[in-house]
C-alpha cells in the first residue's frame, strides 16, 4: 500500500544496501536518495520509476551540515505536503586497514567525519520531521542506521574505522533512548559479513559457499520489518550475518 | 501461501506469545501445539481452525525427555508426510522472585529444568527434523527460542530465574553456531518488557501509557520475520521492547 | 599481615587456580580447602603449612547441599571464633565437548549440577558468614567465582558446558547486585585461555609461545586484588587471558 | 622498588584519577604529567617530590598532534636514558548533557577531538616507546585508558559524550589486539560512578551513603594492578563502581 502522504529518505546509496533499501521502501513511499555524486543515485532513481515508484536524488555530503541542510530544504520544496516516515543512514566512508602506527590523523578524521558527524547531521535534520509524523504515520516513523562488525569490535588494524563505527552506535543508542518514548523508532543494524555486490564479486568469503555473502535485498527486508514493527515491540539493534559466518 | 508439505510446532502455548505465534505460523503451516495441559492449547486449536488453518495439540512436559519423545512420535503418526519448517520454544516455567537466602534448591531446579532441560529435550527432538527439511523448505528451517530480560541480566532477587534463562541462551548460541552452517536458523529472542495478556491486564507498567505492554501479535510478527529471513542474512538474537521501556 | 580473626574458604582445589588461590590467600588468612577427594587438597594443605600458613581440607561435594552444610558445620567447630573474609568458588566439573545430537541428558545434568547447583549451595552457606564479617573485616568480604570463555560464549559443541557456565554467571550477577550494597564483594572472573598446569603441559596453545598459557599464580594475584579493592571501587567481572590469546 | 631505568607518563591530571594514578606510579617510577595548564599538574609534582618521588609536568593539549609530539621530545631530553613502562590516558574533556536537538556540531567535535583524537595522538607517541621497553621492563609495558559509563552505554541526552567515549573504547580494543601479542598491555577501565573529588563534594549520589563515590586512590590501585599483571594473564577491560551503584 503506497502512502501518498509520507516519504522516505536514504542517505548513502550505491550498489549495495542503500539501493536495495531504496527499492524496498519505494514500494510504499516516494523515496529521496542522498549520495555525494549523481552517478550513485541516478540509476536507482530510474529503477524505482520503472517499477512504478517515485524517487529523486540530491547530491549531498552528509559530513557537511550545510550540504545536509540544503538537501532537506530542497526536499521540502519538492514534497511540500509529505511527512517523513523513514530515514535510513547507510553512509560508509572509505576506510584504512593498517597497522596502528601507519594510520594518520587524516584516516581518523575521515572515519569520525563520515560516520559520526554524518549521522549527527542527518539525525538533526530528520528527527524533527520524524517527530512531526508520529501522530499520523501508518508505521512508527523510523531512523535506521547501518553498522558493521566494527561497530562492536575493535579489531587489530581497524582502529580508526572502528572508532567511527563505535561512535555511530553511541549516537544511535542515545537517540533510541531519547526519541523512542516520543514514538520514533531508532534502530542500529550490525551487518556482520561481506555484502554480495558487484565490487565483492571476486572475493572468496566463507570458502565460497552459496549465499556466503549477504544479499542486499535480504538486508532491505529486515530494514522494512524494523520499520513496520509495532511500537509496543521495537527492536533497537539487529545483527545480520550469513548462515555460514563465524561469530 | 500455505504449505502442504511442512508443519510448525510451538512448545509452550497459553494466553500470550505462544498463542500469537501459533496463529501467525498457522497462516502458512499446520501447527502442532505443545503444553502441559489441554486447556492451554484447545482454545487456540479452535481459533486456528476457525480461521481455516490446521492444528492440533499434544499434552507434553518439555522438561521430561520421555514426554517430548512421545509427542514427536505422535506427530509423526499424525503428519507422516510433512517435514518440520519451524520449531518455537516458548516455555516459561513459573519462577520465584525472592532474596537469595530465601530461595530453595527446588526454586533453582524448577528454573533449570523448565528452561534449560526443556530446550535441550525440545532441540534434540526437533533438530534432526529441521535438518531434514533444509533442502526443500520454502524458508530456512528455524528453531526460535523465547528469552527474557533475565536472559542477559541477573538482577537482584532473580538469581534462579536468571540462571535458567542464561542457560537457555547458552544452548541457543551453541545451537546457532553448530546448525547455522547446516542451514537451520536458530534465533533467540529477548522479550524485554511485560506482555499484554489477560494475566497482566491489571498491571501498571511504563506509567500505564498506551502500548506500554508488548503486543503478543507484534512479537509473533518478528518471529515470522526471523523465520523468513534469507539464509545469507540471519539474525541470531533479537530484542523486543515497548517504545517507552527503559533499557 | 595475617589476620587472626578471619579465614578464607576455597571450593574446588586441585593442581591449578584453586591451589594458587589457596596459597595466595593463606599469606593472610587460615584457609579451608574443599574438594571431593582428599588427594586434591592434602598436598596443598602441606604446602601452606610449610610456608607457615594455616590450612585444612574437608571432602565436600558442592553439588550436594547436605555435603556443603556438613562442611560448614565442621568449619564452625574447627574455627569457632573466626569470621569468613573470602569465599572462592572454583569448581570445574568435567565436561563433554560433542556435537549437540550426541550430548545426553546426563551431560547437561553434570554441567548444571556441578556449576549452577554447586555455586547455589556454596553461596547459600557462605553469604550469611560473609555478611556477618562486613563490619569488621580488613577487606570487603568477598565471594569470587571462577568462570571461563564458555561463561559468555556458547560455542558449537559446547552446548551443555556453556549452559552450566552461563547459569553460574547469572547467579554471580544477581548476587553481586543483591549483596554488593550490603558490603559483600561478589566478582566473576572469566578465565579466557588454557591454564598452565601439569595436565596441560603437553598441549600446544597459542603456537607454543612462552607464557601462552595462563599462570595460575597470576590468576591468584588478580583474585587477591579483587578481594582487596576498596568498596567504593568494586570490579564485578574480570577477564584474564594470555597476551597472545585471540579475543 | 623504584626503577631507575623506566618512567611513566600520565595524560590528563587534575584533582581526581590522574593525580592519584600519578602518585601511585611515582612510588615506582619517575612520572611525567601532561595537562593543558600548569595549574593542573604543578601541585601534583610538588606532592610527588615531597614523598621522595621524581616528577615534572609539561603543558600539553593531547588533541593537538604537534603539542603531543613536542611533549615527547621534551621528555626525551629530560629523561634521555629511560624507557617508558606505563602510559595512562586519563583525558576527560568537558561535555554537554542536552537533548539531542540542542546539541551542536561543536559539542560533537569537542568530544571526538578531546577523546578519540587525544588518545590517537597519545597512543602514536607512546606505543613505539612502550614496544621498546618490552624486553627489559620489570612489568609489561602498559597503556591504560580511562573510560566511563558512557563508553558502553549511549544514554538519552549524552549523545555526543558517548560518541567520543565509544570511539576511545574502539581504539583501545584495537590497540589491545594489535599490541598485546607484542608484549604491551593495553587496558580500558570503565569508571562507572561519580569520583570523590573536590568538585563533586556537594553532590549527593547513591543516597549519600559512605563510600558511595569512588575513591580516586582506589582507582589508582586497580591501574597499578593492571600494570603489574603477568603477561600470561592480562585484563583488557575493567569496570569499577561503588558497592552501592546500580548497574
Q: How would you concisely characterize the structure shown here?
A:
Chain A has a single domain (6-240), classed as Rossmann fold. Chain A is an alpha/beta fold. Chain A has helices at residues 17-25, 38-50, 65-78, 105-133, 159-179, 216-228, and strands at 6-11, 31-35, 55-59, 83-89, 142-148, 185-191, 237-240.
Q: Would you kindly provide a written description of the structure presented here, covering whatever features stand out?
A:
Four copies of one chain form a homotetramer. With 247 residues, the first copy, chain A, is an alpha/beta fold. Chain A has a single domain, classed as NAD(P)-binding Rossmann-like Domain (Rossmann fold). The first copy, chain A, has helices spanning 17-25, 38-50, 65-78, 105-133, 159-179, 216-228, and strands at 6-11, 31-35, 55-59, 83-89, 142-148, 185-191, 237-240. In chain A, helix 1 links the parallel strand 1 and strand 2. Chain A is globular, with a radius of gyration of 17 Å. The mean pLDDT of chain A is 96.
